[in-house]
Amino acid sequence: MEYALRFTFPTTNNEAEYEAMVVGLTIVKSLGIGRIWVKGDSKLIIDQVKVICGVRHEPLVKYHAKAIQLAKGSKQVIFEHIPRAQNEEAEHLTRNNLL
């Protein structure tokens, strides 16, 4: 299953990463999926949701809280950083001007 998001509001790269994560977690939760593997190419965002580092940028605090809330409602959520060069899905979207 693939979803594409198009933002109609100004956003930073990090806000877009969180927005996509929150939407994805919301979708899988609505489908009743209990075990989730979240792959992201933003090391900062993945480290923040894994609580390896804190959230310092105020606009990201609400996104972070929502992502954590959604993750806690699932049986198992694995957050994994995938370097952009190894993220074939993101590369496909970028090549086709969808990202």
Provide structural commentary.
By secondary structure, the chain is of the alpha+beta class. It has a domain of 69 residues: Nucleotidyltransferase, domain 5, CATH 3.30.420.10. It is 48% helix and 12% strand. It is built from four helices and two strands; from the N terminus they run αβααβα. Strands 1-2 form a two-stranded parallel sheet. The two termini are 17 Å apart.
Concise description?
With 99 residues, the protein is an alpha+beta fold. The chain has helices at residues 13-30, 43-49, 58-72, 88-95; strands at residues 35-40, 76-81. It has four helices and two strands; from the N terminus they run αβααβα.
Helix content: 40-55%
State the CATH topology of one domain: Nucleotidyltransferase, domain 5
What is the 3D form? Answer: globular
Average pLDDT number = 86
Distance between the termini: 17 Å
Q: Helix tally?
A: 4
Rounded radius of gyration (Å):
13 Å
Report strand order across the widest sheet: 1-2
Low-confidence stretches: none
Provide the β-strand percentage band. Answer: 5-15%
- H/E series, N to C? HEHHEH
**Main CATH class of one domain:** Alpha Beta
Q: What structural class should be given to the helix and strand makeup?
A: alpha+beta
| Corresponding CATH superfamily of one domain | Ribonuclease H-like superfamily/Ribonuclease H
Tell me the major beta sheet. Answer: 2 strands, parallel
| CATH arch. level architecture of one domain | 2-Layer Sandwich
Number of strands: 2
